[in-house]
């Protein structure tokens, strides 16, 4: 196992969530009558796919990410959710915002330790001065989906030669 000393290589990622308010009708079909939103938390590539305007397309992070563990709030059944292949995401319904721990495990060839990120699940749009922090259902539905994403870069220092080959082949 040979390291390429002095080299740093990074891969851009985004992590975060989208959330949509459930209509009264949708709420009636759920087993949890108190749930107000459907949301998806994800880790994606921040590099656009070639010839595409879409960020996070394809499975262009699975060659270096082996597993993403999303640790949800304890009010959820089985709060620790493992995702072993793309898309690295979890969709749920719920009523409240909370901090999600996102643990990224890299492929064994990398020799890297896991990396932990934190994301505050955002369900409600930013309120203007004088507006309620949690808008009424009709207002939330009219507003449309809420997006909350953060950019980060995964940095590999002195990478193993074979891992570097894997990274640069993609
Ligand atoms: C709060 N600190 O009090 C937060 C906790 C918990 C959110 C929010 C679903 C739970 C379930 C859910 O939305 N939990 O019924 O499975 O606002």
TrEMBL record:
- All copies of the YEATS domain together span 3-170
Top-rank taxon: Eukaryota
Q: Which UniProt keywords apply?
A: Activator, Chromatin regulator, Coiled coil, Cytoplasm, DNA damage, DNA repair, Nucleus, Transcription, Transcription regulation
Q: What is its main location?
A: nucleus
For this record, the Gene Ontology CC terms, alphabetical, are:
cytoplasm; Swr1 complex
- Where is the protein localized? Nucleus; Cytoplasm
- GO process terms (BP): chromatin organization; DNA repair; regulation of DNA-templated transcription
**What does the entry's free-text domain comment contain?**
The coiled-coil domain is required for assembly into the NuA4 complex.
What family does the Swiss-Prot or TrEMBL record give for this protein?
Belongs to the YAF9 family.
Describe the function of this protein: Component of the SWR1 complex which mediates the ATP-dependent exchange of histone H2A for an H2A variant leading to transcriptional regulation of selected genes by chromatin remodeling. Component of the NuA4 histone acetyltransferase complex which is involved in transcriptional activation of selected genes principally by acetylation of nucleosomal histones H4 and H2A. The NuA4 complex is also involved in DNA repair. Yaf9 may also be required for viability in conditions in which the structural integrity of the spindle is compromised.
Q: How does it assemble?
A: Component of the SWR1 chromatin-remodeling complex and of the NuA4 histone acetyltransferase complex.
Q: What is this protein called?
A: Protein AF-9 homolog
Name the gene for this chain: YAF9
Residue range from the parent sequence:
5 to 174 of 255
């Amino acid at each position: 196992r040979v390291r390429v000393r002095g080299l740093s290589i990074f891969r851009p990622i985004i992590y975060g969530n989208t959330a949509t308010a459930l209509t009264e009708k949708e709420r009636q079909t759920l087993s949890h009558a108190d749930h107000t939103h459907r949301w998806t938390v994800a880790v994606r590539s921040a590099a656009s796919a070639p010839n595409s305007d879409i960020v996070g397309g394809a499975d262009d992070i699975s060659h270096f990410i082996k597993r993403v563990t999303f640790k949800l709030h304890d009010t959820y059944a089985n709060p620790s959710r493992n995702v072993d292949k793309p898309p690295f995401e979890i969709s749920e319904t719920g009523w409240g915002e909370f901090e999600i721990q996102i643990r990224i495990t890299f492929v064994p060839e990398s020799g890297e330790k896991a990396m932990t990120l934190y994301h505050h699940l955002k369900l409600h749009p930013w309120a203007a001065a004088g507006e309620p922090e949690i808008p009424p259902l009709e207002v939330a539905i009219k507003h449309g989906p809420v997006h909350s994403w953060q950019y980060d870069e995964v940095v590999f220092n002195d990478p193993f030669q074979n891992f570097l080959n894997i990274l640069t082949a993609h």
